[in-house]
Amino acid sequence: MNLKKALNKYITVSPEILGGTPVFKNTRVPVKILFDYINGGESIQDFLDNYPSVNKSMPHRIVSLFSNYLIELETVA
Fold it and tell me: What is the per-residue pLDDT across 29-57, written as a single tens digit (0 to 9) for each?
C-alpha cells in the first residue's frame, strides 16, 4: 500500500494552512490532535464531538490506514 497516496484523500498539507501542518481535508484541524486524543485514552467520538468540522469517517479511515500499513510491514519483515 502506498500510505501517503491513501492518506492524501483525507489529509491536506499546504504551507498556506497552519504553516504546512497536516490537517484534515477542508478543515484547519491538525491530524496530530486525533492521535493526542487516542494516546490520552479518549475515543474517536470524543475527538469528533470537539471538532465537528471534521467529516465523521475521516478519523476512522486514517486510523484504519495506519493500522493496515503496520500489519503489512509486519508481514514483509
Answer: 999 999 999 999 999 999 999 999 999 99
- Paired with 23 in beta bridges are 12, 30
Sequence spans of domains, the chain: 3-76
Classify residue 30 by burial, with Cβ atoms within 10 Å: 0-12, 13-18, 19+.
middle
Does residue 21 contact residue 34 with C-beta atoms inside 8 Å? Answer: no
For the CA atoms of 45, 46, 51, 55, what is the dihedral angle to 10 degrees?
Answer: -10
CATH of region 3-76: 1.10.10.10
pTM above 0.90, yes or no: no
